[in-house]
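#dry-run=false #mode=assembly
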Amino acid sequence: MNAVIRLPVEQAYAGELQALARNDDRQKPAGWSLSPKAVLTYLLGGKADDGTPITPKYVGRRRLMETAVATLATDRALLLLGVPGTAKSWVSEHLAAAIMGDSTLIVQCTAGTDENQIRYGWNYAQLLAKGPSEEALVPTPLYRAMQGGKLCRLEELTRMGSDVQDTLITVLSEKMMPIPELNTSIYAQRGFNIIATANNRDKGVNELSSALKRRFNVVVLPLPEDMAEEVAIVSKRVGEMAGGLDLPVPKNVGDEIARVLTIFRELRSGATSDGKVTLKTPSGSLSTAEAIATMVGGLSQAAWFDGGKLGAEGLAASLVGAIVKDPVQDKLVLEEYLETVLKKRPDYAGYYAALNAAI
Amino acid sequence: MAQGEVSYFGIRHHGPGSADSLVQALQDLKPVAVLIEGPADASALLPLLARPEMQPPVALLCYPEDDPASTSFWPFAEFSPEYQAALWAVGNNAALRFIDLPSSARVAPLEDAQDAAADETGAEVETETAPHLRDPIGALAQAAGYEDGESWWADIIEQNPEPGPIFAAIADAMTTLREGEGPLAEFEAKREAHMRLEIAAAREEFDGPIAVVCGAFHVPALQATRPQKEDQALLKGLARRKSTMTWAPWTGPRLALGFGYGAGVVAPGWCKHLWRTRGRHDAATLWLAMIAAVLRAKGHMVSTASLIEAERLARALAVIRERPKPGFEELRDAAIAALFNGEAILWALVEAELLLGADVGEIPPDTPLAPLIEDLQRNQKAARLKPEALERELSVDLRSESGLFRSTLLHRLNVLGVHWGKLTDAGRSRGTFRERWTLSWEPEYAVRLVENLVHGPTIEKAANGRLIQMISAASSLDALAALVQGAITANLSEASTVGLATLEERAAHSSECLEILASVPPLADIIRYGEARKTETARLSGLLARLIVEGGIALPYAARDLDAQASSALVGVMRKADEAIKLVEPEQDVLDAWRNGLAAVLDGSRSTALVAGCAAHLLYEAGHLSAEAAAGLIARRLSPGTAVTEAAGFFEGFFSTAGQRLIYDEGLRGAVDAWLKSLDEEAFVAHLPLLRRVFSHLDSMERRRLIEAVLGRARRLPAGLTPTPDGGEAWRRHLDRLAPLLRGENDHG
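#status=ok
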């Protein structure tokens, strides 16, 4: 019995990876443990050459995964862009696992990440004792990946400061990292590459400099295209989270999820679901993840304050919070949506009234 | 007996790949006769194609003499195999013929119902056929997972590992494809029978190799040996209708599938690129460079380094997809990832320009006939109007059928840039049932009509086409509304449908309050006076209601912190919109939304004073602000606490068109009076021009009554002030003396 909550995917899916590797005699780029074709099969599901079934890891457009794998097969770095909840990190982890058999060289970028965490740090005891030397260097995941010809993952690239981001420019274009203190450099081994993930429509992130952006091939992972698929994802996650928080789930939760998601999807896509009316889109991302948070907020409100009744009134505050990120522009968008669309839908009368009251 | 050896070249219509292979094959074969799938009775026009003045894209038009609206057309692009075959034949002195059913049989209505249906939708008359029949190679490509038939042709047919005759491979593929087929539709069977007979006749006539160029799908059927009698029996009793044929200039976009041409290609721009770069190894690079050029023209920064990366990615993608070289899809995906930062939406931005192209063809000036001129002559006859060079007045009664017909014709011609008739009572065209026109025909109008052939073969279709083009190019909402109004006035239903759809879309995306409000009056006009059909009226009033609501919501935000110019523009638009809204009488809640917007402007602390004044006036006129409330409001807005410029702005906004109110409304007058008295001399003098502007709307009678009202019954001015009885007269005298000085006429010294 394993006490670890979640194993790295190369261990969790070791069977599939082995099955794919077994008969994989197609040409492989330097340092890859699988051929690009087998990596695609691993991501999108199918059958290994020996007939072992492979579960799909990413459900969505095949073209995007092809572009991602092809990018890594050249020596270009890959940037996965998308709003929260579009499986960026998930794809990045599986890519690293399938290509290198190792998804653990990872830097979690935050506003507090500094250059020492990207390039290399110093062991100060050694530094004081011996002066600047190789032994006193503390390698980072990026450093190790360059040395070992591995894939390095940078999570939430845009969360760290622009000055720190830009240390990557030399690494990406010249495949080397200078260590001026030792008057030397390390040179990346074949197989080294970077997979970065970032939010493209989030607040509180640092814009990527165009110099850096130009060094990535960018794949934007979209939100689910299909309403039914998204409803299923939200229902499943809301059920799980409510269970975790010990919140009772009222019977009508399915209907409310459908209504909230309809509002989300319509505003997000800039058109009503019947395609008849075009709408303005708010500045927020209105992602699946936010729909989940809205529903959980509504459930919590219902359980603690509204006597277990889930309805438009309880959801309105979280809904407005999700939609109106910019107090002027987004409010205008929502007002217009309420007046031109929701007002005419009898089954949304509760939402119309509650949202109007909330803004 | 002469027995020509026949070779069959199954091509993909408008496929640059097959055009290239075809030219090579013809070069090898050196046929004495080239037979092309196309209307047999147009053979005489074929050599014109090879004239240097003929610049593709051009189209062969065939239409029944009495009904140009049901035109069939055969477009030819530079990369069309048929065009290249014709060029080759003329250049090599080979006989050149069309062998398909003559157009006289094609334009004859098969069933009346079909004809009517085509007219109803305004669609081009082109029999709807199954996709595999229309483009079997495209269908095969799609089955193989290709989005682009040309890449499939290049990868599969041309990269055939066992190099053999390409066209034999195509014929084999088509034979397999057609094996399981049931009998063809009657029309298709007749076409193939006709082609077989023509080929047989050519065999008798020519001694030497004969090349047959036809859609790949037909090859097996044309190769089959069938008793001629069967074919002749099939063609017996073919309906015929006298038809006219000519060449017309065509456009790149109209070659595309999306534009209603059945055998069109998905992306003419891509096909043209493939044709121009045939045999070159850097075709992919050139395509990426073209993408970069379009992007740069749109203001996006694209570096050469990114182009290199895009090309590398495209090659890697081709490897992953197991294709011999990057094709259309690989290049697109690579461009999105490496040039567009992953944003597929940016691709949509350049797509139309790249894929459709903006090519316009040219035809030799001495090409016989132009259907638009013929159509005009027919219409002139029906309208009983003669083109005369001398100006002539024409008054048209729109209530009579003939009057309406004339008016519609003239409006449509105006859309085409043929200003034969000019509307003399400018402004609202359908405000009354009478229109006055000045007619005068200029010879260059005939040339302009020929130019408009690009848009369609009849006046109606061409006007529709041209207006649709203008609509898609229109940049602002109000311009768009004016175009839709034009479309409805000229009774152009296609254009008005497209216009309305565009308008709805733009209306949703526009947050420019000025634009939204400016588009209200023309739309309101259409509803009030237009002869829009019922469905359109319903759609229009829905749209109008939405625009009014949107305008109402956006107004308070738009009214904030404006400079003098912007605020007076907004006020002008607001007044016009309000007038239009009152006239169309929308539903109460729509009206409320508008009034709420006005009220919000009035309440908003950041609203510009001029706009707030105007809003107050509009509310007051609508009865939403009682006389006492208005007086209170004005007193407050003009009270000493307010900055003088603010107060003046509010005053102007309220009274610039409502000076008369001061005569009758004591409350208002009192408030204004109090404000004027409170001004010190300097401020008063500074605002004199403003006061003059406001009161200049009053005539002398009203001015006198205002003075009486202000001074009460006493009709006595305070001491020291004497009203000039002939003030107006004195003013004119002063002006007369001032004007020459202002003009710089210095005759005094």
